[in-house]
Structures are given as structure tokens and as C-alpha cells.
């Protein structure tokens, strides 16, 4: 089966306009004149995204999406509505039945971008649901392609988080959750425009508000894919701060799940010691100094000490190896 997008509207001229708009996108486009007809298409097609009008006779769009939630829970739903019917769209979003809404008359470029992002979301959910280690790691690398400055970031964060796990002698299951959570912690950036991610300087408040949505979007995907709670928590809370000044929920101290606090330390250290569009990379030693200065405000003090101790151990081991090699020479 091919992955398709489906447009549902009882007005023929609307369907023709939508099919024409997406004719050159390379997407497999389906159409239906009613919700009942649309439901039958799910028996024969894998449908990634549905764009449906709300005010249709027989079965409104919100009712259609409510039924679809049980039939195709990973399908991404976009509700097309008028300004006067916005409350219905917002209510459907709050219930989790609708991902986005578009107001008639729509902007062509915005609608195409919204559908493209929704397809990425569907493919991400489908990948996560397999819970295959190689595939999940590949997904993380694909997400990193949106931001060339973060290439390899998720893998390095996982390595640093596992160093802390080794020091704390955490269980194999927690180590697996830390690995998956580290790989996926930025998966919500699928919904953030690349122009914002790759901006070569401090972003404006509005753009930063968009960036700040990625933990919630990512956690929702991880939750829908039925990944372990610890993985969802890492994705959702890795930007919380120990002093309560982080986002998205301003949790503080030990109210932040420990797995998220571990990944936060690893995430910050890697960000400090790699190139970013707005600054050069700090040296490893300078990265440690900055990390230590963040104890108790941004980061859990005990976990920072644990990580720095692990780094020192590794450096000592490397020094010992060099000394041994020279001795044998």
C-alpha cells in the first residue's frame, strides 16, 4: 500500500481545487465527497493525512475525525473550517482529534507546508511504533538533517547520558530508555521551520515561542507511539530547569523526572562543545567550567558532578593508555 493524503469535502469545486494544488507535489492524492465515503477508503489505502471540511451534511468533520481516531490513530487530521466555526476546531484540537486547522479561503503555500509537515509526523509516528533500535536511531539522524549544526548531536547526547547511567549503576531498562530518549529528545523539531532552526543569531521572541513547542509536540508523538513513560518524559521535560525557569511546564528540582534531568546535562554539554549557528564551540575544559556554573540553576547539581566525574575518569583512562603505549615503545 502507498501512503496517501485524502481530501474530504461535499463541494466538488473545493475538491477539484485541492487536487489541482497538490497535483505537482508527487503525493498520492485521494478525494471523497462525504465522511462515509472517506471512511471506506481506509479499507484499501494507507492514508497519512486527511484534510476534511467541518460543515458537511450527514456527518460533520469533527464527528468524522472522532470515528477515525479508532480506525486510524496515526493518521494526521487537519480540519478545514470557516472563521465562524473556529470554536469547533479548537475543541477538536483539545480533544486530540485534530492536529491543525485551516481557515477557508486557505493560503496555498501554507496548506502545502502544513500537509508536508503532517506527512513527516505520520512517518515519525509509524517509525516510533516499531520500537526498532536501528530505525529509531535512523529517525534521529533524519531529524538532525533539518539543522546541519546538530548532526551527530543525538548520538553524542546518548553517549553522555549513558556515562551518567554507568556512574549511577542504573538498570538495563533505564539505560535503554535513556538511549531512546536521547535519540528522540528533539523529534518535535519536525514541526519547526528550518529557517528558524538555522537562523544565524538570536531569534525573535515569536520564533523562540515556536521552538519552545518542540518538547510538547515530540512527547505527543512518543506517547502516541506507546513508547515507555521514561522516554516520553525525556522528550517532554529535557528543557526544564532545576530552578523552575525552564519550559514547557516550569517544573523544578526533583519534580523533573530523573531521566530528563540526566539528558538535560548531556544535552547542554554537547551544545556547549559543538559549533552552533550563533557561536563557535567551546573547548571541552571550558564546557565543563560552564556546566559547573549551571549547578543548581539550570541543571541538577548532583548529576553535573556525576557527569564531570565520569569525564575525568575517561580522560584519566585515556592518559593511562597513552602512558602504557609509550612505556611499551
From TrEMBL:
Residues 4-119 form the Response regulatory domain. The keyword Phosphoprotein applies. PROSITE patterns: HD_GYP, RESPONSE_REGULATORY. It comes from the Bacteria. Gene3D superfamilies: 3.40.50.2300, Hypothetical protein af1432. The modification 4-aspartylphosphate is found at residue 53. Keywords: Phosphoprotein. Transmembrane segments: none annotated. Residues 128-323 form the HD-GYP domain. GO terms for biological process: phosphorelay signal transduction system. PANTHER family: CYCLIC DI-GMP PHOSPHODIESTERASE TM_0186-RELATED, TWO-COMPONENT RESPONSE REGULATOR-RELATED. This is Response receiver-modulated cyclic diguanylate phosphodiesterase. It comes from Geobacter sulfurreducens (strain ATCC 51573 / DSM 12127 / PCA).
Amino acid at each position: 500500500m502507498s501512503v496517501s493524503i485524502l481530501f474530504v469535502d461535499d463541494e466538488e469545486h473545493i475538491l477539484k481545487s485541492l487536487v489541482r494544488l497538490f497535483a505537482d507535489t508527487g503525493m498520492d492524492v485521494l478525494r471523497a465527497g462525504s465522511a462515509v465515503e472517506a471512511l471506506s477508503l481506509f479499507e484499501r489505502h494507507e492514508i497519512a493525512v486527511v484534510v476534511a471540511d467541518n460543515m458537511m451534511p450527514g456527518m460533520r468533520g469533527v464527528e468524522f475525525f472522532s470515528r477515525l481516531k479508532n480506525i486510524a490513530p496515526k493518521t494526521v487530521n487537519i480540519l478545514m473550517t470557516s472563521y465562524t466555526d473556529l470554536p469547533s476546531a479548537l475543541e477538536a484540537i483539545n480533544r486530540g482529534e485534530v492536529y491543525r486547522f485551516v481557515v477557508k479561503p486557505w493560503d496555498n503555500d501554507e496548506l502545502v507546508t502544513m500537509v508536508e509537515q503532517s506527512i513527516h509526523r505520520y512517518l515519525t509516528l509509524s517509525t516510533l511504533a516499531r520500537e526498532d533500535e536501528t530505525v529509531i536511531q535512523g529517525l534521529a539522524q533524519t531529524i538532525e538533517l533539518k539543522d546541519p549544526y546538530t548532526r551527530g548531536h543525538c548520538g553524542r547526547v546518548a553517549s553522555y547520558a549513558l556515562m551518567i547511567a554507568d556512574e549511577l549503576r542504573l538498570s538495563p531498562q533505564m539505560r535503554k530508555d535513556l538511549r531512546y530518549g536521547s535519540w528522540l529528545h528533539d523529534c518535535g523539531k519536525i514541526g519547526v521551520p528550518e529557517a528558524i532552526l538555522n537562523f544565524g543569531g538570536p531569534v525573535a521572541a515569536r520564533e523562540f515561542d515556536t521552538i519552545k513547542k518542540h518538547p510538547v509536540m515530540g512527547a505527543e508523538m512518543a506517547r502516541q507511539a506507546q513508547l515507555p513513560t521514561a522516554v516520553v518524559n525525556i522528550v517532554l521535560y529535557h528543557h526544564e530547569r532545576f530552578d523552575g525557569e525552564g519550559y514547557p511546564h516550569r517544573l523544578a528540582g526533583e519534580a523533573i523526572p530523573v531521566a530528563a534531568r540526566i539528558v538535560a546535562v548531556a544535552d547542554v554539554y554537547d551544545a556547549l562543545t559543538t559549533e552552533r549557528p550563533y557561536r563557535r564551540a567551546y573547548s571541552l575544559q571550558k564546557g565543563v567550567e560552564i556546566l559547573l556554573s549551571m549547578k543548581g540553576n539550570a541543571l541538577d547539581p548532583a548529576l553535573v558532578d556525576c557527569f564531570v566525574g565520569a569525564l575525568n575518569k575517561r580522560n584519566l583512562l585515556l592518559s593511562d593508555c597513552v602512558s602504557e603505549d609509550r612505556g611499551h615503545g
